[in-house]
Amino acid sequence: MRLIGLSAQYRSNASRRMPARHWGVLEPYLKAIRAVGGVPVILPPMEEDRLEAALARLDGVVLTGGGDPDPALYGEEPIPELGEVCVERDRQEVFIARWAAEKGLPLLGICRGMQVAAVALGGSLHQDLARSGFRQVEHYQDSGPPALSHSVRLLKNGVLSELFGERFRVNSYHHQAVKALPAGLEPLAEAPDGVLEAAELSDHPFYLLVQWHPELLPDHWGLFGRLVGASG
After folding, report:
1. What string of pLDDT tens digits covers the 232 residues of the chain?
2. Domain 2-230 is classified in which CATH homologous superfamily?
3. Domain map of the chain by residue range?
4. Catalytic pick among 139, 150, 174, 213
């Protein structure tokens, strides 16, 4: 069995009876990893030395979706369209993204996870796609799974073409996206309006970033299968 870490998502559900914050992951991530033979391990925020010790015991890691990364991470001031940020989560996921890149730990970044990894390695984000002029394609769909939003065009053959062919459709639940890719990250796919939909880190066993949510699409669980396979 391969141990696959998942970065925890923050939920503010404190009440008078239970005055505590909630850290966890949505069930579809757990289902996807279990379906391909992995064992999910949730990673809540912790001290860097403890996190590093935990990562050293894992076979792979998933940076999950969620809220907006703090634009201070890439040297920008926040715009009015920016959503809620969580400094604790940002700090932990930036550490994970850099550690995995340096140590060769297989990593799958999903939606926010793609954005955080790109920023951690030196890239930047569109804080809001509509504000940046991307209005031709729906990137924040109202419909839940299994509904799909838009097509994706591959820029390079590889794991995506092997799993899905040359052109396929994805779901879309984001208002931010990667603006500038850092050195080492190669673009793999884009939406019809040019928004980056996937990238990978060159010279790495498996470091794949996707902008959609494959955990919600059983037909896309092959991405988790490739993560688990790379961990071997």
Report:
1. 899 999 999 877 655 666 677 899 999 999 999 999 999 999 999 999 999 999 999 999 999 999 999 999 999 999 999 999 999 999 999 999 999 999 999 999 999 999 999 999 999 999 999 999 999 999 999 999 999 999 999 999 999 999 999 889 999 999 999 999 999 999 999 999 999 999 999 999 999 999 999 999 999 999 999 999 998 7
2. Class I glutamine amidotransferase (GATase) domain (3.40.50.880)
3. 2-230
4. 213
Residue 111 a catalytic site member: yes
- Active-site position among 93, 111, 175, 190: 111
Active site residue 86: no
Alpha-carbon torsion angle 10, 178, 123, 232, nearest 10: 70
CA distances from 110 to 80, 115, 132, 184, 193 (A): 24, 8, 22, 18, 20
Of the residues 93, 190, 200, 215, only one is catalytic, namely 215
Catalytic: 47?
Answer: no
68: DSSP letter: P
